[in-house]
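R.M. (postdoc): so does anyone remember the format we settled on? I'll just put the structure tokens first.
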């Protein structure tokens, strides 16, 4: 694994690094009837909000201040969540750049009144940017992966970052190469 100081996207900083475990957190919530969609299962948007809340807490803890959601990648729903499920949203910082952090999130569910093991029902990766009082980017501490799993997640996060940047660059080049179309654009 590459040392943080040797990374080209991470200049040397006086901010001491923090271990992955320093900001890891779990948010738990019992799903109720007000969380349901038209099919009677928990609405995906409710789960996404819990994911964003947990990831935001982790990003704020790691960076030592405010952090805003920059993107959500790969939100995957594996199983439906039902009313009465106790949902656990587990989040940790996987990777850090100068002012950005990738937060990995696992969503688990179990029946509120049973002692069966929780089942993974979803996962997501979010990118947060640390901001100062004026909303400008501010530096974040390097994340220090501790376990082999943390090191694997760090390396996978670097791959996702490379893909995000390449995709953004390719779309920008495509848009710039096309002649302006008449009328306002209706898509992002």
């Amino acid at each position: 694994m590459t040392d943080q100081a040797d990374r080209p996207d991470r200049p040397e900083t006086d901010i001491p690094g923090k271990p992955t475990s320093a900001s890891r957190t779990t948010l738990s919530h019992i799903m109720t009837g007000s969380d349901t969609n038209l099919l009677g299962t928990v609405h995906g948007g409710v789960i996404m909000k819990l994911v964003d809340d947990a990831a935001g807490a982790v990003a704020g803890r790691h960076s030592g201040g405010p952090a805003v959601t920059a993107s959500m990648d790969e939100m995957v729903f594996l199983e439906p969540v039902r009313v009465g499920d106790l949902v656990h949203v587990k989040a940790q910082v996987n990777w850090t750049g100068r002012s950005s952090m990738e937060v990995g999130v696992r969503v688990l569910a179990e029946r509120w009144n049973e002692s069966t093991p929780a089942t993974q029902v979803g996962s997501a990766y979010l990118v947060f940017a640390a901001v100062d009082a004026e909303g400008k980017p501010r530096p974040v501490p390097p994340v220090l992966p501790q376990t082999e799993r943390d090191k694997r997640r760090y390396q996978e996060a670097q791959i996702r970052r490379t893909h995000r940047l390449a995709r953004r660059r390719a779309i920008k080049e495509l848009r710039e190469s096309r002649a302006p179309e008449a009328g306002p654009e209706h898509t992002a």
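R.M.: ...and that's the designed sequence above, right after the tokens. Also worth knowing: The first helix runs from residue 44 to 63. DSSP finds two helices and seven strands in the chain.
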